[in-house]
Design a protein that fits this description.
One of its GO terms (molecular function) is nucleic acid binding. By secondary structure, the chain is of the alpha+beta class. It contains two helices and four strands, in the order βββαβα. Strand 1 and strand 2 form a beta hairpin.
Length: 101
């Protein structure tokens, strides 16, 4: 069964940015990757970044990805943003729903 996903851009409030980050982890070599994209309220790409690094878990990779995205946003003067991540565990830790390991 094929599943089709429709992705739709919801306009942001004026002056707001959307930050999306993601991390990946290869347990066999303890290496991870991270990426982020920041879009302006016009939907246009504002900036993006990616890198590889040594990490201990998928959660560690997700956390580094988010941290680096937020550092870049601050460096570029962004003060109003919507942040999207796909890690439920990281979201729970950040929102203090559970204690981090």
């Amino acid at each position: 069964m094929d599943v089709e996903t429709i992705v739709k851009w919801d306009p942001l409030p004026p002056g707001c940015f959307k930050i999306n980050s993601d991390g990946a982890f290869n347990m066999q070599i303890s290496k991870g990757g991270r990426g982020f994209i920041i879009r302006a309220d016009t939907k246009n790409l504002f900036c993006a970044g990616a890198d590889q690094f040594m990490v201990t878990s998928a959660l560690h990779a997700e956390a580094i990805a988010l941290l680096e995205a937020l550092k870049e946003a601050i460096k570029r003067g962004i003060s109003k943003a919507i942040v999207e991540i796909d890690s439920q565990n990281l979201f729970s830790y950040i929102s203090s729903q559970i204690e981090p390991p």
